[in-house]
Amino acid sequence: VTHSIPACIGSMTINSKQLDNESPVSIFAVNKCYVTVQDGTFFDGSGFAALVREGYKVRSDVNITLEFRTTAVHGVLLGVSSAKVDAIGLEIVNGKVLFHVNNGAGRITATYEPRGTNSLCDGKWHKLQANKSKHRISLIIDGNLVQTDNPYIQSTSADTNNPIYVGGYPADVKQNCLTSKSSFHGCLRNLVLTKGQQAELFDFSRAFDLRGVFPHSCPGAER
């Protein structure tokens, strides 16, 4: 077993003596327990999850789907970059969802702007789908489609080779298709990246770097 138990533990006694878990000698990656939880991954707004250590290659086509729940109007959702300019990025800025793509010739952005500033940041689950097909990009939020024109039709491949950063990224890592540095505060679930017929569901507990992220449950009410 190489990872911690996704559970709450309380009232532990050793030799009839109850342990004081309120003032531990040391603590690492232990969060509060919650009366009600939902499936998903909780991001506490301080960090990120890093996936695919060897680097994810977006190239010509990728379809990203996920669900998010937040009350914050700013936050990084996902970024994949390269050492050059090629990159993709998903973020929430001022309550809008932005999908950026740079195939090497310049950044283009599909923007979903809800009717109310807080209507996507209402603490309820929302479905997101971002699609890049060669030079075309589209964004679907809760069934609402947004497309944008791309003047760089000859440039079709985002030649990325860096990890997938979800919910934020380290200060020393460059992200060419993200404008925000704010880590996501809220919950994410069902992150799937599809290339052609091959769909990959990402398990955050298998991330090679996890900071301020709790993979197995989203809190309802604190206990």
Automatic annotation (TrEMBL):
<dbReference type="InterPro" id="IPR001791">
    <property type="entry name" value="Laminin_G"/>
</dbReference>
<dbReference type="Pfam" id="PF00054">
    <property type="entry name" value="Laminin_G_1"/>
</dbReference>
<feature type="domain" description="Laminin G">
    <location>
        <begin position="38"/>
        <end position="218"/>
    </location>
</feature>
<protein>
    <submittedName>
        <fullName>LAMA1 protein</fullName>
    </submittedName>
</protein>
<dbReference type="InterPro" id="IPR050372">
    <property type="entry name" value="Neurexin-related_CASP"/>
</dbReference>
<dbReference type="InterPro" id="IPR013320">
    <property type="entry name" value="ConA-like_dom_sf"/>
</dbReference>
